[in-house]
Design a protein that fits this description.
64% helix; 129 residues
Length: 129
């Protein structure tokens, strides 16, 4: 059987799912794009802003701060919890997005909405401190 005839035997109804690298490269920016307000915010580049920029890797998990469980604990514990939540969000979104192209689009928009909400929480916290 020639290669040309083998091409037409392949089922066209079963597309391959997106690769893990493609999923990660699409979802990782969607996790952090809503936080672009931080470097472009009007105001001085003081210690407060630098503190928030250093906290940027954990900021998508800021929703754990709203639970109230971590209020009496050390800041290192709350930042660890935020980092774990951020990593869990990314892993779950990648697992969902890896299923098919439709689930990748769903996962992308779901992550944008969740990250946008977390960005809004961070924005409110930035201006109230």
């Amino acid at each position: 059987m020639s290669k040309r005839s083998q091409f037409f035997i392949l089922p066209l109804s079963e597309p391959r799912p997106p690769s893990g690298l493609t999923v990660f490269l699409l979802l990782f920016p969607s996790l952090y794009l809503p936080f672009l307000w931080l470097p472009f915010e009007q105001g001085p580049w003081d210690a407060k802003r630098w503190f928030w920029l250093k906290s940027l890797p954990a900021l998508p998990g800021i929703f754990v701060q709203t639970l109230g469980i971590l209020d009496s604990l050390a800041p290192a514990v709350s930042y660890t919890a935020m980092s774990v939540a951020t990593l869990a969000l990314l892993i779950i979104a990648c697992l969902i997005g890896r299923q098919s192209r439709g689930s990748l689009v769903f996962s992308f928009f779901l992550l944008i909405v969740i990250s946008g909400w977390n960005s809004w929480l961070a924005y409110q916290s930035f201006h109230n401190i």
